[in-house]
Amino acid sequence: MNASAFLSANVLIAYTAYFVGTASPGPSNLAIMSLAMGSGRKAAFAFALGVMTGSFSWAMLATLGLSAVLATYSQLLVAIRLAGGLYLLWLAWKSARSACTRHPPLAGLERAPEASRRLYLRGLLLHLTNPKAILVWLSIVSLAVPAAGGASRAAPVVLGCMGIGALVFSSYAVLFSTATARRVYGSMRRWLDGSLAVVFSLAGVKLLTSRS
After folding, report:
1. Residue of 30, 84, 28, 17 whose CA lies nearest to 195
2. pLDDT averaged over the chain?
């Protein structure tokens, strides 16, 4: 595996597309941001690790020919989309409930601690039930790897994109867990949780009503 495998024109385009898609605000990034501000860096990193594991899982499946499986079993993508939509609506309900809760003034900014394992599983489930993640990986692999390239040619693309994803998600966890960010969260918590509820609701309804 040489440097050209990581830096060919098609691969660089794939890296750029993946970075734009990963860094853009979406359910995963917004959830990491909210956890970092409300529960601290450790909680955000645990959730982010789950998201990255889910992303890596779809990357491996895309590399091994997931498109052929989906073409044969088209109902699989429908089932994933329905599960993802319901999960996003559940997250929306949790965010809405938090937005409607007025914490006592002396309660502090931190939410009740949640086990790292549970946060990891939440992040993993969020990404495993995200059809957009599946389609993004399929397009990334097909863009960067020739049709006859096989899994060995896809490895540099997957490794490079996973490095980009780890950098993006970790940056969200670090930046939004700073003292300044947490002070902002303390003053705007209910508004931010309400915004998350709206975003998760719209994304969930879109998944459940999509026909594509």
Report:
1. 30
2. 75
